Amino acid sequence: MKNLLSLFAFTLVSLSLSAQPKPAVRKPVNPAVRTTATQSNSAKTTTTPQNKPVAATKPTPQPATAYQEQATAAPTPTPAKSQTLATSRPALQPTIPARESHFQIGFRLGGNSSTIGGVDVSELGPGVKLERVTGFHGGVVFNIGGPTFSVQPEILYTQYGVRMAFNADYLQIKYNLVEVPVLLKATFGTSNAQFFVNAGPVATYTLSGTISVREGGQSDSQTMDMTNEGRFSYGASGGAGVSLKAGPGKFLLEGRYSYLFSNSSDETKLTPQNAMLSVGYLIPIGGR
């Protein structure tokens, strides 16, 4: 019986030993295959986790032919219409207010009606009266200053005179003078229509004179000898008028009155007086 138990135990030990797995025998591996496997394993170990996007590897750029470059070239975007208009229009410049000229030059001409003061008509005789003499004037006008206040010197050729009449007969004295007024001028209104007043001193130089006589239906005249006569005189002048915008300048319509003082040495102080109605035109020089 004891021998049977020993035999049974020996049989179980043999079966357990035969059931254990045998160790695997490793075969030699080619070095090239080993390197490839190592690189593959390293690539697997460095694989990007699933929660992060895998960066795409950029292919090596290959030289493109001219045809491929032309085909793959991106089309030039066409600018929008509003952008084209914006770029085609010139840049707006700030508006610069026009600067009005402070110097103007022009002319004036018109008619005169003159007489003389300082004469006692009663001493001339019964029925004798003083009458006004008509003439003309014309010359150059300068205006210096702003649009409201300015100085206006002028150089005019003008005529003064007086007539002492008795019925159809008369004795007339007429002078030709150079008159130089220097007027202070004030202007009011808009740029298209203005009203102005002026006043200032005036100086004259007598060029010549004529005496005309009519008696008994016959007339005669002669030139006055100015050798011993005082040719210079002075006085005051003033007037008013309107100016209207016309073309590049201004059209003037003015009435003026001049009052002179005689420089004669005798006790009689004659005062030639002249009423003038004239038209003129002033053109600004400079400015923009």
From TrEMBL:
<feature type="signal peptide">
    <location>
        <begin position="1"/>
        <end position="19"/>
    </location>
</feature>
<feature type="compositionally biased region" description="Polar residues">
    <location>
        <begin position="33"/>
        <end position="51"/>
    </location>
</feature>
<protein>
    <submittedName>
        <fullName>PorT family protein</fullName>
    </submittedName>
</protein>
<dbReference type="Pfam" id="PF13568">
    <property type="entry name" value="OMP_b-brl_2"/>
</dbReference>
<dbReference type="InterPro" id="IPR025665">
    <property type="entry name" value="Beta-barrel_OMP_2"/>
</dbReference>
<keyword id="KW-0732">Signal</keyword>
<feature type="region of interest" description="Disordered">
    <location>
        <begin position="20"/>
        <end position="88"/>
    </location>
</feature>
<feature type="compositionally biased region" description="Low complexity">
    <location>
        <begin position="53"/>
        <end position="84"/>
    </location>
</feature>
<feature type="domain" description="Outer membrane protein beta-barrel">
    <location>
        <begin position="101"/>
        <end position="264"/>
    </location>
</feature>
